[in-house]
Amino acid sequence: RMNERKNNQVVARNTIVFHGKVLPGTGKCVCSWPGKYESAWDALVAGSRTGDISAAVVFLPPGSIHFGRHDAIPKGEKLQGSCWCVPLYGEPKPWGCRWWTEWIANIERAHREGAEMQVYFFKGMKGQGKVEDFSTAG
Question: The whole model's pTM is what?
Answer without folding.
Answer: 0.79
